[in-house]
Description:
Helix content: 25-40%
Oligomer: single chain
Strand content: 15-25%
Number of domains: 1
Shape: globular
CATH topology: Leucine Aminopeptidase, subunit E, domain 1
Bound molecules: ligand AR6
CATH superfamily: Leucine Aminopeptidase, subunit E, domain 1
Structural class: alpha/beta
Amino acid sequence: MTPTLQTLQADITQLDVDAIVNAANTSLMGGGGVDGAIHRAAGHELVAECMTLNGCRTGEAKITQGYRLKARHVIHTVGPVWHGGGNGEPELLRACYQNSLALAAEHGLQSIAFPCISTGVYRFPADQAAEIALEAVKVFLQKPSSIQTVIFCCFSEADRARYERLLSPIGATQQSPGQGGVAEDALG
Ligand code: AR6
């Protein structure tokens, strides 16, 4: 079966997928943005499991249970802070996507949703980040794995439109705001 790429404008904490990816920091102890939202929605058991993981380096990924989330797992990855692009930021961002997908595949997961890693507090330019994200996912999916569905879960309409523009040439499934539940339908 050919894996599908989808773009969705949604709160990632609401998605019914095997794993949602968290744009965390190296402590894995929670924070603001999507990290804070995931920890709030998952409940205090999540931070308790995170405390056992000894943090996470930039570009790497670690997996936990999803606890009160609909998602069965959370894959925590740490994006680079943008310092102008000459400090390995593109490579580190690519590694976040590669390592998150590899971890999901190691666990036999089929569906995974990513937020726009590093593009909030960490200030990575959104256009470049989306290009890197899409390229990394496409390269990963060229080899057979358990992964059947990858969702780019955008919080803003601007991000959703950005991913749609990039995805259009490869015929990806695209979802609009207000089509709640479509992702779940698509994932069966
Ligand atoms: N669902 C989906 N996307 C979201 C949600 C949500 N509920 N909330 C925010 N976003 P950011 P970073 C989007 O700042 O830049 C934290 O404090 C948001 O619009 O969450 O990687 C961590 O602890 C943006 O597009 O992550 C770290 O210290 C994207 O998520 C630091 O921020 C990423 O924005 C990580 O910064």
